[in-house]
Design brief:
The chain is mainly alpha-helical. The protein has 8 helices and 3 strands. A 3-stranded mixed beta sheet has the order 1-2-3, with helices on both faces. A hairpin with a 2-residue loop joins strand 2 (about 100) and strand 3 (about 105-110). The protein is flat. The termini are far apart.
Length: about 160
């Protein structure tokens, strides 16, 4: 699965960079993370069903298969198409965003930045001692690109300077 994860993460970066590059030309770029019952998902499910307890219990396997089928039938790829159509339409107001889409459900997927912790003499112990603060997602931001992240970093540094 590492190759799949790396490819998906690369698409996030590609989407963000293409959106930034296309902005001056009114070109919008967004991405979807579809959840649909396709041949790829079917193959993945077949590979994952080798559970030892179920191999010798036909009735338990039948129940699991029936439950899976009930949910899988809701993952109609046609329910992804409306999101694709809207995100490619000229009236779409966003660019550089990712949406997860499946079974008629649509949600924005994003990577945020916490306020974090700052110490000009950062040590492993300081990271350990302030890890909850580093991870605290209260008042997180969603950087639009590297410039936003650098601005947040410099603002933190400047706020810590003596007057």
């Amino acid at each position: 699965m590492s190759n799949y994860g790396a490819a998906k993460t690369g698409l996030i970066g590609l989407t963000r960079v293409l959106a930034a590059e296309g902005a001056d030309h009114d070109i919008k770029v967004n991405a979807i993370a579809p959840i649909a019952y396709t041949r790829m998902l079917a193959h993945s499910m077949e590979s994952a069903t080798g559970q030892p307890d179920l191999e010798n219990n036909a009735s338990a396997q039948a129940i699991l298969d029936d439950l899976a089928a009930q949910y899988l039938q809701k993952l109609d790829p046609a329910l992804v198409a409306p999101v694709v159509a809207f995100l490619t339409h000229r009236d779409c107001p966003v660019s550089g965003e990712i949406y997860t889409v499946g079974a008629g459900h649509v949600a924005r997927f994003f990577i945020g930045r916490t306020k974090g912790f700052y110490s000009p003499a950062l040590s492993m112990e300081a990271v350990r001692d302030h890890f909850a603060e580093i991870r605290d997602d209260t008042d997180y931001t969603v950087p639009r690109g590297p410039a936003d992240e650098m601005s947040a970093l410099f603002a933190t540094i400047m706020a810590s300077q003596p007057d």
